[in-house]
Design goal:
Strand content: 35-45%
Shape: globular
Order of helices and strands: HHEEEHHEHEE
CATH superfamily of one domain: Gcn5-related N-acetyltransferase (GNAT)
Helix content: 25-40%
Strand order of the largest sheet: 1-2-3-4-6-5
Number of strands: 6
Structural class: alpha+beta
Length: 131
């Protein structure tokens, strides 16, 4: 259903992949599934910090199909980032430090690490992209 590294990330937080997706969708202001040729590639969403906030938390969990369609996946990532940056001055994402592919992907999108925290024995980064 989701990539192994994404599964390890949500399990480090104490969730199953299915529960992580449903909680993320339920807690989002907007959420959707990116599909290519009908196949889910990634689950995306965002939530504003408050009604009047200029900041939003963003999340994404990818499927193995993201590796089969890297160009389309990258284009959608850039499109979504740019669309959100028209509305918000800052985007924040929490990511498992051990999920190096996600950390590099966020850095490629212009995010930088602004904080680190421990969850049990695991380290999670908060990464931020400003307008």
């Amino acid at each position: 259903m989701i990539r192994d590294a994404d599964r390890r990330e949500v399990e480090a937080l104490g969730f199953t992949p299915q529960r992580a997706i449903s909680m993320s969708v339920e807690g989002s202001d907007a959420a959707f599934v990116q599909r290519i040729e009908g196949e889910p590639v990634a689950y995306w969403g965002w939530k504003a910090h408050s009604l009047l906030s200029s900041r939003a938390n963003v999340w994404m969990l990818s499927t193995p199909a993201a590796d089969l369609h890297p160009v389309a996946f990258a284009r959608e990532s850039v499109r979504l980032r740019d669309e959100l940056l028209e509305r918000f001055t800052a985007l924040l994402a929490d990511v498992h430090a051990a999920h190096t592919v996600a950390v590099r992907w966020l850095e490629w999108l212009g995010f930088r690490v602004v904080a680190a925290r421990s969850v049990g024995a695991e380290v999670f980064y908060t990464m931020q992209r400003d307008r």
